[in-house]
Every structure is written in structure tokens, then in C-alpha cells.
Here is the input.
Amino acid sequence: MAPTTAADPKTGFPRAQHRLSKKSKSAFLRAREEEGKNLNLRDGQTPTVGSTQDSALLLGSTHADNHAENDHTHEEGEEEAWKSQMSRENARRIAEMTDEEREQERTEILERFGPGIGDLLRNLKEARSTARKESSTSSEPTIRTKPPNISIPQSPSRSASPVSILSRPGTPNRATSPNGKGPRKLRFANVTPSDVYVYESQPSSPRRVLALLPPPTPDEEGVEKLTWKAPSATLTPASSSTPSEPSSNNEEPEEGTPEYIRRRYFPSASSNEPSLAWMAMPKPSAPSSKPPAGSPDSQSSSIRYDLTGAPIPLHLHDTLPSHLGLHHHAGDAAGYTLADLLLLARSTVPAQRAIMFSVLAGVVRGLRDGWKSAEEVALKESEKQDMRARILTIAAEAIGEPGSVGARAVEVVWEILVQSDKDALSHHLPPVDLGDADVTTAEDTDLPNDLISTLPLRHLLPIIAGRFSTPNLPVTSLTQLLQIVHRLALHSPTTADAIISTPNLIPSLLDYFLSSGQGRPDPMAIRIITAIAHVSKANALAIIEQGIPDVFLRFISMLPPTSMYPVEVATSLLVETLAFYNVLAKYGLYCIIATTAAQPLSALASYVVSNTSSSPALVTAWLKLIETWVVCARDPHRTTPEHEILWSQIVAWGWADDLFAIRDALSTQSEGDLIEVWPALWNAVAAWLEGAVVNGIRNGEQERATVIDKMNDGFEGGVERAAVAHSVQTLRETLPGWQVKDTTPRREWLEKLFVLSRHTTLVHAALRLCVACTNRNPSTSTSALTIPLSSSDLLDLCYTLIMHPFWSYAHTASPGPGYAYAFLRPVTAFLTWSLRFGSLSCVTLADQRKWLSLAARTLTRLFPGDEELAEWILREMAKIITDDLISGSWGWGITDEVWKKGGMEVIVPFLVHSLHPEPQIGDDDQEKVYVASYTTTTQSIASATTQMLPPSSIFSSSNPDASYGLPLPADWAFTPLNYLLRSGSSKVFATLPPDWDASEVDITRATLVMTRVIHEVLGSYPNSMGREEIVLGCMKVFMLEHGQPHSDSADEVFRDSSVSSLMSSLVSSFTISSQSTPRTASRTLEAAARRFLGASTPFYQFYTDFLELYDAISFSYPLFASLLIPPLAMQYAIDYRKLIWSDHPHVLRTLRTKAGDIIAGGVVEFLWPVEAEAEMLGAYIRALVSGSAHEFLRFVALHHVACNIWPDLGRDGQEKSEERAKKMLVALVTQGSNDAVREIVLYNQKEGQGVLAPMCFETEGRGWKAERLRWITGWAAASLKERLAPLLQ
Here is the structure.
């Protein structure tokens, strides 16, 4: 029958029975519960740990004391008997075992318990023996040290209890023993949680509170007391511990000391209270405040800052009082290290984070401007950059935080990104990619080139957009955030594209800062849109699609006098709007606004004319916009879409009359800075004249006459002449004394570049206007505009500019920044327009040579965006280089075939095409980059894809950017040969004019003639072609035969007499015989060929093909052979030497170039350092023994072998080298000819020199001969001595 269970009256179902209910409990557990029922202990009563005479009371026994003692003795006796019996049994079993069994048991025990089991058992045995002796000799009863078993004592009413399963077999349970005594057990009191002190500095107590004994009462005698001993936090007997409280001292402690604070505010606390340890006096921390020696940021990480971000002097770290808030942790020195600030900037307490960001802002300001109130802190630039990067990372993460935390984070980012570049931004930096403005140096190669590249813009920009859409920050913080976005827009195309593509960023920005409901608008918002449009034409189109230009139109329709804003603000908004429309117009975009807003623009023109003195910036912006729109109207087919603005509209609107009215207003002003207004006016008038040449009657003759009539008086003796003369004089005074060095302060460097840019802009505009006023119709007698600068003065100024050392520093990090070259665009424009102005009077051969020399130098100074200027120079140079110029100036005999084919006109298409390089292999879909020209032209409007200059890395010779044709390389004259070598893939042949007809030989001749002329006019100019460029160019001529069929050697280009003669004349100036003193090469052939070959093809591969071509078709052609020798110099890798001496030794017989005809800076390039490679030395010996090496190469082999044999020539004294030298000498003596042996024995050369044969064999002095003879005598055989001794005696 199933057991019945009472049902629950509430549910009607049987009650659930717990598995630990009474029926299911074990007999052992039920017995324990029954014992607990008989307990009658008062809650909170504390049993004490007494001595032996009180043990009966503690264990709840009713027997007498003597019974307890007898029972204890009886128990110990039984235990000892049992131990003795087991010991005897174990000894008997061990004695019966064999040696193998004992060893097996021993091995099993060691494997199971480890090798230390023997020591453990030995220690236990000794402990038992010691305890036994103490027990027998001691008369005092003791408490056993066995861990207590917490249990309930047995009730007297129970006569029996279950046998414990832990009892030993054969041992009776003391609960059922005949004497009726229960087991002796120790119990603990039921203490409450309040009785246990938990220290806050320790981990939280476990859920199970351990039962600890409370202190004994005074009436409890014989109880051993337990006291607290600090600071070890262990319970120790009072008899063996020192008192925790200090000895009483009646003296009053000094005010402010930790003891004074404890007595005053914590009188009940112990002096060793752990919770008061923070008051302890800190130990001297000056040494500990410094990081370990050798740490990467040992200087920057040891600096401590106060709450303003200023460094605290080292001697104040331990003396500043704590009430200043500079002691964050107990024991720390005063102030916060950078690590502390960065850690606290991530605090969970907003107020603390805000304070730390405020301190970090002060640190950043100090890194930039220095600290005036603190001692000098010497930090490397790499350390400063690392500190800024770490701070920027923390601050950028907190920009989205609410309240003061976000505001202070914005301030920190603003200090790093905006204020650090305030020098450049204050000088109206032209649009340039700032991505690598500060090129890394050797000491900071692990740092990024710029900090903005480390920002996670994909996450940061949406946060900024949210800040603008929900403006819950202070106005100051939002303005700083606006300037941060502006700095990001100026940085690089990547950041500008990220801004324009971030949803709601631009709309929310414009809505807040330009909406009339948000207070005073900020022109910086328009400046951001302008910066984004500068980056690319695609961005400009995206801006137009969003309707942003129409939003800005209201600032034109409301002129400053009628605007709701103050005049200064309204004028600034108007200036920025005109600048924005000018940027769009330079792409040929949104010119329709000139038609749709004709009436507001007409009112604006009138306002500008009447306010030329009050707002020069407004006049300048209006004139620049007029200039660009006039250029667009010059050829309406170049705009997008076409015909948005027409020349007839320009005439109808009367813009020319407005220009003259502005000129009249400016001529009456005696005060004010007009250095930017005059260039803008002259450029606008020049653009109008250039457009009239195309669209006006009789090539704009009437327009030129009008300009000359209205402006010539000013240029002859009026304000225009004064303005030009002032700028020219400033340049003459500034340039000669301008010493540019790596240590030049950056601010001074930028200021001088800005001054140079402004004054060259003015002179350039004057030259452009004079050229535009030049009479182009010889049948008329129209006079030209007079410029207050003679041709000789202009030429001297150009040479002063073009030879100045600032060109070498304009794109480097020192004095930096790398973007400084953007300030030199007006200089390149001035040089080019000087050439235009000079070409008008270039008649005689002397004038042509001067013009040609200036033109060749100017070509090497042009930047991206100057391609149109470079094209004009190249075409003019091709016209000037004629047979008359060459024969009359230098007397060269050039074949008539060159001039019959058109002279230099043959190669002009190739040179022009090189200004816009073709995409590299694999980048065919990549769009070409066209930078807008400095002077706006119709061609620039049609083709420009960006108005932002590329980064300064394009000037790196080690990694040139093939996307840009400018600046031109030093060997630009050899460019047509590059296209011939790649005629199968080059697109230039598809763009050649229909009447172009030239052969490969014709192109090569013209190229070599151009190269020789350029090399002659440049001379020792820094950017001229060097030895490596000439050698590489001649190699290209021979490589034209690579991969071609060679049925007839007469068809080979290099065998043409004109080609051969021109190449020989080019290399002759770089041979050893033509140099009075040795010249060191500035770079190698590998560096010279990097731009031509690209990064994927090493020069070694090109040289290998060149050697194999020589071996196949040269027939020992002398010039061909001489071009193989330069890479054999010791500065090149050993692979080049192995290629000829080891892999192609048969070629050596044909290389008979004499020492004087070697193309090198000196003989020493091939002699030092001495060759030490065993393979090469073996190749040299084989060549000497076989006689395959001749002339100069034989001398080179002889030198390296002799230097590895004779100790006096620099051979080291190592045993290995000694043995190798002996073997080499024996091989030469036994196998070589008498001449080879004599030359090896008598060869003498001082280290670092290059004395040629035969003088190197006739050196006077007997010391080195005697030394060699002694060395040979010490080891050589008799036959060897007999042969060599006569040579050394």
C-alpha cells in the first residue's frame, strides 16, 4: 500500500515532503537534533577556553575532575598502543619484502606523494617524539592542539549514541564506553555580527560569519587572553606581543600632525587604526616620483602639474601643503602626473572629470606657448607630440558627455587642433593638404605624422552633429566646436569628405550659426563650407545640390548698412559669401548667380565703390570674384553647365566701369593697407583685357587703350608706381639677409613667408597687367603700360628669388611646417610672368641665353597647379632653342636632320604630357588629379578637380608621388625616352598632332640636344642634372633596343653618329680625366631611377637587362661598356659586382675602359673600402690569373687582392684572414703570369687614396718591402721565397 500523506487544505493536493524531512533524515542527523533539544544555553552566553581543571564544565560533563584526567590518560594509552601495534606490523612486512619489492614500493610512494614525502614523514616522527617527551615530563595539564570540532555536547539523559563512521576500527566509541563519559569537544559562542569588527580596507566578509570568541570576563580565571596586534592583523597571546598602544605621553602633539588630528577628531580610535593610515606623513617621494631610468617618457611622465596645468618645481613636490588640492593619494607628492590626469579624466564623478580636463587644457597650452611661472621644462618634440596624442584621445572620447565634462573636453580638443595651428591659420593659409605637415624625424618614427589622422571621425562627427542639432553646451564651447570642424575641413580631403558625408552635420551647423533666431551669426560656418568646396569639385557639386549657395544669398541682398546685424558682422558674412562663390566659380560652377542676382550684385558694386577705405577685405573679395566670373565669361563652354555667364553680360553689367571707379577711389587714399587690394584690382583688369582679346573688337584694342589711358599715369608716377616700388624694395631688403636654418623659429619662418607671398603677389599682378596691355598688333601704334622696373632689375630680382635657400626648407619639417610651400605659389607665378614679360623683348642671342637660363631654373621650382605655366615655358623654350642659338653661343655642330624635322617641337608633346602623368598599372580607373592654377584661366576652370595643394610628401626623393607631374625631376629632359621605352602602353602617342611625323631616332636626337642645352645653361645649379641622371639617360638610349629584332645593326639608335656624339659629349664632363678634384656623388643610380622604374621594379633588374643587352648586341661598343662600370663602385651592393665578375666573367674581356674615361667622381669610389667577400676575391684572382680583366678593371682587381694579402695595406691580423692571404698569394705565384706576380708584390696604396698604375708600383720606401719579406719568410716554402725575394730586396 502506498504511504498516505495529508492533503493541504488550501489546495487539496498532498503536501510536498522535503528530502531532509524527518522520515528521510539519517539516524546520525536525528541523533544530533535530539541532542540539540536538550541544550539549555542562554543566548549570548559565551563559553570560555579554560585550562584543564575547567574542561568538564566546558564539555557539559557531570563527572569529577579526576575522572576526566583518568579518561584522558586512558585514551592516550589506547592510541599509543594502537600506533605501536601498527608500527610493528609495518616493520614486519617490510622485513619480509625483497629488495626489488622495497624499491618498487618506494617508487610508487614517490610517484604518488612526490619526492618530499620522506622529509615530511621524518618531521612528523620527530614531532611525535618531542611531544611524547614533553607530555611525560610536564606536570601541567594542556589543551590539545588538534583543531576543534564544533559540535553539541552529549546530553546526560541519553545513554547511547550512534557509532561515528569516522571511528577507528577496533576503537570503542567514548560515548558508549563503560565509564559513560562523552567525547571532549570545544564549542563556540553564538555571537552576533555586531560583535565582529570588519575593516573597510579589507574585502567584504563572507556570508558565513565565523564564530569568534569574545574577550573573557574578569571572573574567568586561567583563561588565556587574546589581543589584537597591529599591523599584522593576527591574534597573538598577550604575553608574547608588545602593546599596540604607544606609551602614554602627556606632551601635546604639534598642531596639524596626524597624532594631533587623531586626538582632536578621533579620540576613541587607536593610533594604529588602519582607517586613519591616510593621515600618516608621506615619505620623501622625489626619487620615487621619477620613472625608471630608460623608460620611453621618463621626462614627460615625471612632471607634476598643478590645477592650472603648470608644472610644479621639483623642490616643491614634498613641501606644498595638502589644502591646495594637489594630494590625490596618501603618500603622493604634490601635483598630478600626466598619467594621473588621464586616469582621473575617466573618473565616474563628472565634477572630477571636468576639473581634470581643465587641467589638461592648461597642459596643452603650456606645451604650445611654454610656462612662464614654472621652472624650465625641457621636452623633446617627440615627447610633446606623444603627450598631445594621449590627451587628444581622452578628450575626443568625452566630447559627447553632458554638462561641464563635454564643455571642458571640447576646450581640450580645441587647444590641440585649432590653437596649435593658429600661426598658419592667422596668415590665411592657402588650401593645402595638411596630412603630413610635420614629417616624422628619426627620433619619433613611432609617432603618427599628424594627430587628426588618429581621430575616429566616423564616430566623432555624428556626435558633433548632435551637439549642433541639440545645442546644450555654452556658446563658447559651441564656437570652439565650430572651429574644430573648420580645422578638420582644412586638414585633408579625407576629413573634408567625412564632414560633407556625415548626416545632419552641415544642416545643423548652418542652422545654429547662421539662423537669425540663434543670436549673432558666425562667419566661420561659411568658411567651413568654403574649405570643403576647396577639396574637390565633387564636394562643390554636393554643396550645390543641397541648396547651400542659395542660403548665403541673403547676406548679399542685405548690405551691411541695412542688415539686422552689426556692420562688422554683416561685412564679415558678406566677405565669406563672396569668397565661397569665388571658389565655386573656379570650378566653373554656379555662375548663374551672377545673372539671377544681378540687381543685388549691382547694389553691392556701388556699395564697394563707396566704401573702399572702410573695408579693404570686402573690396578684395569682390574684385577676386569679378576676376573669376570674367574668366568664365571669356569661354562660356568651360563652365558647368555651359553658357551660364556670357561676355555680353559682362559688358552690359558695366563691370569694367566699376573696376575703374574702384581704382579712382583707391588712388585718392593715402592711408590704409592696400597691399592686397591693388593686386586684386590689377588681376581683375588683366582678366578683362585677356577676355577682350578673344571676345572684343580687333583683339580688344579699344579696351587696352582705355586701360592705358586711365592707369598709365599711376604707373608712371602715381600710387600704382609707389605700391610696386615699395614691394620691390621690400623684397630687395628682405631676401639677402634672410638666413634660413633648421633652427629658425616656426613663427618667424611663417611670418617671413607670408611677407614674401604678399609682396610677390603685388609685383606679379603688375607684370600680368603690363603683359595684358602689350600691343599684339604690330600695325598699330598703341603704347604699352609702363612698369617701374627695368629689365635688368627684374632679372636680378628673379635670380635672387630663384637661388634663395628658402626653397629647400619650404616643404620640410625643419623649420617647418611642411605645408609652408603653399605660400610660395605667388613666387612661382611671379617668376613665370617675369618670363612672359621678358620674352616680349628677347631678341639678341645674349638675351635668349639669359631667358633660357632663367626658364630652366623656373621649371624646377614649379608646384602642382602650375602645369599651365610649365607648358607655356616648355613651348617657348622649344622655340628659342635653334641652330643659331646653339652654334652662336656654344659652337656645337648639330646635324641638320634635327632642324629639318622641326627641332625641339618634336618632343614638346611628350614633355607637355609628362606634366599630367598617366595612372600607374592597376589604377586605370583612377581619376587624374588637376590642381587649379594660381592665376585663374579657362583651361584651369575646365580641368580642375581640386583647389587644394597636395601634401609635402610629393617632394620626397625617396618616394615621389607619381600622381603629379610637378615638381619636375632633375632629368625631365630625358622624359621622351621614357615614353619610347613604353611605347606599347603609353597613351601619349594617341594624343599627338595629326601633322606630327618623327622617328625614334629623331626623338632621341632632339631629346639629347635639349638635354645638353639644359645641362649647359644650368651648370652647377642645385636642381640640375647630375652624373647619375646623365648615366641613366644614356642607358635609356641603349635600352631602346631591348626586346627589338636585331637583323641589322645599322638600325640601332645608339649607332647613329649624332646620337653617339651627343651622348659622348654629355658624359665627358663626368669622367675622371675631366675633373680637377674628385667629386662625391649626391645620390646613387638607384635613387635616380626610382621615379622612372617605380616601386615595383628595382634598378638591379634594369641593370641586369642592360648587361645582357650589352652582351648580345654591343660588339664592345666603348660608350656602352663605360656605362656598365659606375654600379661597380663600392658604395653599391655587392650583387652588381658579382653580376659581372662571377656571373658574366666573359664580359670582362670586352670592358677595356681606361681609368681616365671612367664615369665617376674619383678612383677611390672603386677601391675603398676593401673587398672582403670570399666569392669576389676568388673572382678577382681568376681574372688576374686568366688575364681576362683589362685596363681599369684589372687595376681594381689587383688592388683588392693585394689589400687582402699584405698586412701593411690594411689586412686584419685574424688567423682566418692570415690563412686566406697565404692561399691567395700561393695561387697567384703558382698560376699567374710574371707581370701579375710582380704587380701584386710591388703594389702599394695608402688608405683612402687612388694612385693609378704605374705610380702605385714605384712607391719609394723600404719599410713596407722589408715587412712583406719578413712575413713571407716566416711561412713560405723555399721556392716561393726564391721567386719573391728579389722583388722585395
Q: What stands out?
A: The longest strand covers residues 226-229.
